[in-house]
Amino acid sequence: MKKARGLIFRKLPPMPIRTLSSLLGPGEAGFRTALSDKTRWHCPEAIETVEANALLPLLSLDRMFGSGAVPVQQLRVLVNGAEAMQSLYVDGNGLRTDALQSFLKQGATLSIADIGAIVPQIGELAAAIERDLGVRCGVNAYITIGDKAAFRPHYDGHDVLVLQCQGAKRWYSHGTTHPYPLVGAQVSAAPEPVWEAVIGAGDLLFLPRGEVHSTRPETAPSVHLTFGLTEPTGADFLTWLSGRAGEIEALRRDLGTTLTPDDRSVREKTIKAAIHELVDDASIEQFLQHQVMRREPRPVVNLARVSTLNGSACLTTALRRRVDLKGDEPGDLAVTLGSKQYRLSQAARRILALLGEQDRARLADLALATGLDAASAEFISAVDILLQSGLVATTD
């Protein structure tokens, strides 16, 4: 089986964008540098217009709104920096499509939060970005058919990667007024723009958190996706450490409000010494591994079983991070992923690890790579448990 791990998968035919590399194209190196350095980055025509359109076609959006597939809680109606009250476009039956159409005619922007939960291809892409970068990735969609701005100048508390899918918008950068913010905010008196560009279909734009920006529709209808990239911070590291403080006796003790000043001073030194020891014994690597293991898989439902699939059927992983699944250890092992524990065979763990590296693969290739017969009970059982547990999903 060790030898099988080195097998190279047969190249799959070209498919819609589902990985970070396929999204970034030749601009990948530039993006990674910008992400690391926290600098603005613009890549015109990063992908073909037809590929950008295909991620979120206008016809699909029409059908989503018309069929009620967009949950009320995920939709915001924005115009000139203000948000419309939900009661103006929601009734007891859900979204009022006539009201939404009216708002759009007035120049409003429709914002759909967590669009990946509605559009599987975008959900797969967001999860693949997480696995590649090791950061949280959330995706929102913005649809505009008028010429009014959705937001006033503002900055975000996370990095933003923008993909224009349809139409075009003019983006303005007003510089950074508050470096490395933890939450976003509007800026009442934004500085004059220091940079601007028209972002057309297929263009990518990266803005680091804290960079004040604004937009103006240029060519309607405009549809763009924002991938919010959230890296753990020093503040997150301290929060994690505080969760471990309860394991230390000195830090469970009272601060000493009833003690004399001299005795309280002794208590303070003891507490500070325990805090220093806690910090010195911990590492950022430990914290990051904890974050990896606690990240919930992407929610999926599988109606299929292996017996209903053929060897050319493709699977993709629901895991948002690359996890050490201990594929070399024989037998069944308990694996904690997110808030749940799963008991997985060695074959199931190897299949899941392979999908984490390949993003998607044919059943026949997975069997070959694990050194198993695709028709064997061991392979069928392994894939079935992964499907039933929602750790993998079928994909095209």
Automatic annotation (TrEMBL):
It comes from Sphingomonas rustica. It holds the Pfam family JmjC_2. The keyword DNA repair does not apply. PANTHER family: BIFUNCTIONAL LYSINE-SPECIFIC DEMETHYLASE AND HISTIDYL-HYDROXYLASE, MINA53 MYC INDUCED NUCLEAR ANTIGEN. Keywords: Iron, Metal-binding. Residues 108-246 form the JmjC domain. Signal peptide: none annotated. InterPro entries: JmjC_dom (IPR003347), NO66-like (IPR039994). Its cofactor is Fe(2+). This is Cupin domain-containing protein.
